[in-house]
Inverse folding.
């Protein structure tokens, strides 16, 4: 299948307000402090930092081996995890505790992948980086003690959006690797297009001034990620409309998805986005679980 969503030209990024950059750095510091609240027995897990070569440089990654999964001589199921942060912040370190918990509770080898962040690196850098990591895991699965036939992908918030972008890329490039065995999502953003066009859901308006994420902040972060999506006297960026790499809810290949597990929150700005995505999966015959916590 031919890909119709390549960006031929990237206009200059608009000027970024210093106040907003300070806010991003402040929030990043809060993110960095979260890891201290997750306690895992270090003896129960082996953690290895490494870098993956890509066409644009080395991509940092961290792999979590629960128990003796690295040394028992067997190949094990794995999860490639992509951190959240609105495409502009977050890191392997900020979500270290989450990955430790995932490895401990599931018994899977967890690979946490970094990706380049906006505003310095705009769309589609994050998806390309993450696909490179997934492709690397497939190609080097035996050396990493990973069962190549059972590598799930997932992420939180923006990371969930990127994970779905990786899924889309895998489906369009079947001959280059193995399709992920499952998708695990925590409150993913699945319809960027509607947000940028001002077509807000009811939950987005209800929770516009939410404690953890406001509608204004989300829109600003998306503008940093996709600065060339402009609406002025008509659509200026028609090649981004219906783009499944940005808005997975619009994917024409969704019917080929593996099993999906999605967790969302009833008071979250993305509640209705996630409900709409669940409806789309149901319409496409996808096997999925959607757990919405009130």
């Amino acid at each position: 299948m031919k890909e119709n969503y390549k960006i031929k030209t990237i206009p200059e990024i608009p000027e970024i307000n210093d106040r907003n950059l300070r806010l991003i750095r402040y929030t990043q510091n809060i993110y960095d402090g979260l890891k201290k609240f997750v306690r895992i027995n270090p003896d129960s897990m082996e953690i290895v930092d490494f870098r993956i070569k890509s066409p644009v440089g080395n991509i940092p990654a961290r792999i979590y081996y629960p128990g003796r999964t690295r040394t028992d001589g067997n190949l094990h199921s794995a999860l490639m995890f992509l951190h959240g942060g609105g495409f502009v912040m977050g890191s392997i370190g900020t979500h270290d505790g989450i990955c430790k918990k995932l490895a401990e509770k599931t018994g899977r080898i967890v690979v946490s992948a970094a990706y380049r962040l906006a505003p310095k690196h705009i769309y589609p850098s994050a998806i390309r980086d993450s696909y490179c990591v997934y492709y690397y895991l497939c190609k080097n699965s035996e050396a990493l003690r990973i069962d190549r036939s059972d590598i799930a992908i997932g992420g939180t918030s923006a990371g969930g959006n990127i994970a779905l972008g990786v899924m889309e890329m895998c489906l369009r490039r079947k001959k280059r690797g193995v399709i992920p065995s499952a998708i695990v999502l925590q409150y993913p953003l699945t319809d960027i297009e509607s947000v940028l066009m001002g077509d807000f859901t009811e939950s987005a308006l209800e929770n516009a001034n939410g404690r953890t994420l406001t509608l204004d902040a989300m829109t600003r972060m998306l503008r940093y990620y996709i600065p060339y999506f402009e609406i002025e006297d008509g659509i200026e960026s028609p090649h981004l409309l219906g783009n499944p790499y940005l808005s997975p809810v619009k994917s024409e290949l969704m019917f080929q998805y593996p099993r999906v597990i999605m967790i969302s929150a009833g008071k979250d700005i993305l509640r209705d986005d996630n409900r709409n995505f669940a409806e789309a999966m149901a319409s496409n015959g996808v096997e999925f679980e959607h757990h919405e916590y009130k």
User: Anything to note?
Assistant: The longest strand covers residues 146-156. The radius of gyration is 18 Å. The chain has one domain: 20-293.
